[in-house]
Structure formats: structure tokens, C-alpha cells
Write a structure and sequence with these properties.
The protein is mostly beta strands. The chain is built from two helices and 28 strands.
């Protein structure tokens, strides 16, 4: 264990770290650029927006008073140079928090850095620690800087005007984007929307799009119906595999794949913007195949075992049940649930519920609500099995969801479509900061 005194620092491995914040604090992460400021509300990860748009930093849950934060250091955007780990009291001051500490753990559970906070005073908010870039790697620093004026003072120090209604550094309006063409850049014709199939009615159904290539590439698919889709990526070869969506400024947005697995194979969940134009950046070593599939192409969960390996998107269409998972990988197993009952916008996704977030071989059983539910295995670097247990009949036939028309494709909106599981409402950040503690 690497004990770090206040003001001290230590190198940590550039791997996905789990950060434990003890004890009972409201925890957030602030991603800062070289000038010490956030670029926008999306760079503040807190309970109202528990995942950064890049997917690199996220709140992973609370267990016995310990808040768990995940930081995939290799996936942090190059513009971000520091990640602050911040704790705020629910009541009282920092001096009243017993056993206050922050600890970074490697994927195998080894503690790589730990800071025991022993000099808390009347502050209600404290920067406990930070991860920062140094010499091509990352270091952990024990900070212990408190704020008597709470989150408002912290926000002011890092470029957030709490009294404003817009983002801390509003970007200029993007230049007009020409209407997207309906041609797909491959021998495959543009996807055509058809009627939903019998037991799944959320999202449009279209002809799959397929593209082949080799090594690093930028992939563009035009003419897709807006909304959630499945990406099926198959890679022949080794080395590092990364896949990101690109925003309208051609910047990396959501990190969908971050793997060193040989011959990567997996199904991923993403959302096509209103423009119908999906752009992806792929980092790969060797030949690859990418397919864009409708949600209805996901495999159905039943009482029979499904067997696969790697990330996947599964569909639950029946009544309440328990989901049994057997995982034989050595790294992270992360499972999200998207409950669609009563959700009437098939062009976006509701906020997900994190059902499993564990490391190493596991046997997990989690309760499922009535379908329709999307069960996303966001990370599963190894073989797994899944089936339903204690299945009950559906209480009522699922209500069909509206299907967006195939044409005309609407012009892109000024704001990007929210990524899966993200809550990018800028006023949510300000409302939280204005409370001072929560």
C-alpha cells in the first residue's frame, strides 16, 4: 500500500483505477484542463450526472459508506490534465467525518495510493486528492484543500459561475451543417425503416450496415434513423482496441471500447444523433468488421443459458425475473439496465441503473423489472453466461413505441443527442452547486 502524506504524490499505473472515498461523503470528480478550469458542465461528475461524456470517469456506487469512483486513465481525453476527487459533507463539517480517507486501487484490488485525512476543520467541501499527468503517466497527489464556502467556492475556483444559467464556458454556436445525404459510404444501401418486430417495439428497425477495414480508421454512416443502435465490432489481431463516437466538432465524445484483448469481439450500445449521421473513430491493429444493427437485433434473455464473451446488448421482454450471470473474466464486469416501460422517446435512452460493477470471476443475480428492458454488458473482458430465473408472466402487453419515419431526415439540432446513461442538463449542475453541500 502506498501511503501518501498531505501534499505528497506518487506515480500510479495507467490502468482503470477504482477510487474509494470514505466515509459517507457526497463525492464528485472534476476534470480540468491545463488552465485549471472545467470546459463545461459535462466535466463535473456527480450524483445527478454520474458518468463523464467520454466514459473515462464515473461514479460506480456506494457500499457501507464508501463511495466508489472509477477512472479509466487511458481513456481520459488529452485536453484533460487533472482529475480532482472532491468530497462534501451531508451535514456538519469535515472535522466531524470519522475515518475520512481516499484510496486508489488497481484492477486486481491492490492499493496503489492512500491518503488519510486527519486535519479536517470547519470546511464543508474538500478536494481530497487529484490524479494528474506527469512524464507520460499519471500521479496521485494528496491534496486536502478545504472550502469554508462549500461547492460555490470550489466552483468559482474552477471556472463555474453558479449564478449563470448556461455552461461555465459556453462554446460559440456551431456553423450551419449541411443536411445529411441519404447515401451510405459502402456497397450497402441506406438503412430503411420497417415496422417493429413482434416482441420488441422500442426504436426503429432498419437494414444492417456493414463496413470492413484494417488498422486505424474514421467511420461515417449516413441516413440512419435517430436513436439507440447496436454496434457489432469484430477484430482480427492483437494490441489495443479503442472506439469512440465523434461529435459535431469532430472531437472524441463517448468511449465505447477500451480493450487490450486479443481478437476483440463485442456488441456495444450507442445513440445516433438527430441528423442521422453516426461518426466513429476506431483504433485497431489488424483487419476489422463493424456492423450497425437495430436494437431489435439484440439477443433475448430467456430461462435458457446464453453463452458469449465480451460486451453485449441483451433484451428482456417478459415479466419480472432475476438475471443470473456467471462471469469467468479477470477484469471488470459492468452491467447497466435501461428500463423502457413508460419511456416514450425512441430517439434517446433513459438514465441507466448500474446493476453490476465487479472485478474478476463472479456469480451474480440481480432483479429485473418487467420488460421492455435493455441489459447492457458494458464491460466483460472474458466469457460469460446469462439467463432468467423466477420468471413471471408480463402483467400487461407492452405498449408499442412510436417509430420515427425514414424520410425526410431532420437537420441536426444545435445540441447533441444525449449519450446513453448521461444526464447533460446544465442546470442540474448549477442546482446542485447552489445547495452548497449536495
Amino acid at each position: 500500500m502506498g501511503e501518501v502524506a498531505k501534499g505528497g504524490n506518487a506515480f500510479v499505473p495507467s490502468v482503470p483505477l477504482r477510487i474509494a472515498v470514505r466515509n459517507g461523503l457526497d463525492t464528485s470528480a472534476w476534470l480540468l484542463t491545463a488552465d485549471g478550469r472545467v470546459r463545461g458542465d459535462g466535466d463535473i461528475v456527480f450524483h445527478g450526472a454520474p458518468a463523464h461524456p467520454s466514459g473515462a470517469v464515473r461514479l460506480a456506487g456506494v457500499e457501507d459508506g464508501t463511495v466508489w469512483l472509477e477512472a479509466g486513465l487511458t481513456a481520459v481525453e488529452e485536453e484533460i490534465v487533472r482529475v480532482l476527487v472532491v468530497g462534501a459533507t451531508q451535514s456538519g463539517a469535515m472535522r466531524d467525518v470519522a475515518g475520512l480517507s481516499v484510496e486508489a486501487l488497481a484492477p486486481d484490488g491492490t492499493s496503489v495510493a492512500r491518503y488519510e485525512v486527519t486535519d479536517g476543520g470547519g470546511e464543508t467541501v474538500m478536494v481530497l486528492a487529484e490524479l494528474y499527468r506527469r512524464a507520460g503517466g499519471w500521479k496521485f497527489r494528496a491534496v486536502g484543500q478545504g472550502y469554508l464556502d462549500g461547492l460555490v467556492g470550489l466552483a468559482a475556483d474552477h471556472g463555474v459561475d453558479v449564478t449563470a444559467d448556461d455552461g461555465p464556458r459556453p462554446a460559440p454556436a456551431p456553423a450551419p451543417v449541411p443536411a445529411p445525404t441519404v447515401a451510405v459510404p459502402h456497397p450497402v444501401p441506406p438503412p430503411a425503416v420497417t415496422q417493429p418486430i413482434a416482441d420488441w417495439s422500442f426504436g426503429a428497425v432498419f437494414e444492417p450496415y456493414e463496413q470492413h477495414g484494417r488498422d486505424n480508421d474514421v467511420i461515417t454512416v449516413d441516413g440512419l434513423p435517430p436513436g439507440p443502435v447496436i454496434l457489432e465490432l469484430t477484430l482480427e489481431g492483437g494490441g489495443y482496441t479503442g472506439l469512440w463516437t465523434l461529435d459535431r466538432r469532430n472531437k472524441q465524445k463517448d468511449n465505447l471500447v477500451n480493450s487490450t484483448e486479443h481478437a476483440f469481439r463485442g456488441r456495444l450500445l450507442t445513440v445516433v444523433p438527430e441528423s442521422g449521421r453516426l461518426r466513429l473513430r476506431l483504433q485497431a491493429d489488424g483487419p476489422w468488421q463493424l456492423r450497425v444493427l437495430p436494437l431489435a437485433a439484440g439477443r433475448r434473455l430467456t430461462e435458457e443459458w446464453l453463452e458469449c464473451g465480451g460486451p453485449d446488448v441483451l433484451l428482456h421482454t417478459a415479466g419480472t425475473a432475476d438475471l443470473a450471470i456467471r462471469y469467468r473474466g479477470d477484469r471488470n464486469l459492468i452491467v447497466h439496465l435501461y428500463e423502457l416501460a413508460g419511456y416514450d422517446d425512441p430517439t434517446t435512452l433513459p438514465t441507466y441503473e448500474n446493476a453490476v460493477n465487479e472485478i474478476g470471476k463472479r456469480r451474480e443475480t440481480v432483479p429485473l423489472p418487467e420488460g421492455p428492458v435493455i441489459v447492457q454488458l458494458e464491460m466483460a473482458d472474458g466469457p460469460w453466461q446469462a439467463r432468467l430465473k423466477g420468471l413471471r408472466p408480463h402483467s400487461a402487453p407492452p405498449t408499442p413505441m412510436p417509430v420515427p419515419a425514414a424520410a425526410p431526415v431532420p437537420a441536426p439540432a444545435v445540441a447533441p443527442i444525449p449519450a446513453p446513461g448521461k444526464v447533460p442538463e446544465p442546470r442540474k449542475v448549477r442546482d446542485w452547486l447552489r445547495l452548497g453541500r449536495r
